């Protein structure tokens, strides 16, 4: 149902972002993927998306800390693929440390990648969507956009901010056929989660198994990690015409975490 539509997904060389790109491509969309990683692996994913969609797939190496690079990425998408009709603000990083030890450069990087990049994306993409009178803007927030956990000050602040930004832009574009929503996953098994296990082991003095069962899944009543496919399926639904009435919403996919 996305034939003739174009989607940009930031941070889509891995994890949840890659699952969004695959879901859009499977519905026939042209996609622009973005993020870091091994060049051969990225090329393999890009070619796979093209094969699956029957439409074009491009890769942009734009760094989400760089507003000019984001502008260039959106312009390249517009010139080569059209649109963008769908943007997903998904790139994100994490750092786990107590407030007094939190490295200032990590604070700045997390705010830039997890929050400001979404501003730059919308700032540049909304005019293209208004021209067509149709658009879908989705941001991957987090259960940490609704509740906090210790030692994640920058991440929790950025994700709460991302939801504020989502609500604001939803109001601004509400009469233009453009919806703006956040999806807030609980713990999804991806490299981002795997990478924070050693730091949590260190800061809380726990074993790997204790971090997985007692810290990560402790908050998730289902005792299951959410899957990237489950998150992508919701993004796909938000792109349907049936979802035109959902805007300014923050939709949890968190195994019941924030019901507590
Ligand atoms: P991931 O580490 O697998 O993927 C992150 C992606 O962002 C990668 O493609 C990476 O290359 C890219 N990226 C990082 N820094 C970048 C930069 N400066 N410029 C461009 N791209 C950059 O992580 P994930 O778990 O798939 O996370 C995706 C999003 O989902 C993030 O916003 C994260 O906060 C959010 N999220 C994840 C979980 C989870 O449990 N995994 C839960 C809630 C929210």
UniProtKB/TrEMBL annotation:
Its EC number is 1.1.1.30. InterPro entries: 3-OHbutyrate_DH, NAD(P)-bd_dom_sf, Sc_DH/Rdtase_CS, SDR, SDR_fam. The keyword Oxidoreductase applies. SUPFAM superfamilies: NAD(P)-binding Rossmann-fold domains (SSF51735). Keywords: Oxidoreductase. GO terms for molecular function: 3-hydroxybutyrate dehydrogenase activity. PANTHER family: 3-OXOACYL-(ACYL-CARRIER-PROTEIN) REDUCTASE (PTHR42879), 3-OXOACYL-[ACYL-CARRIER-PROTEIN] REDUCTASE FABG (PTHR42879:SF2). Belongs to the short-chain dehydrogenases/reductases (SDR) family. This is 3-hydroxybutyrate dehydrogenase. It comes from Sphingomonas cavernae.
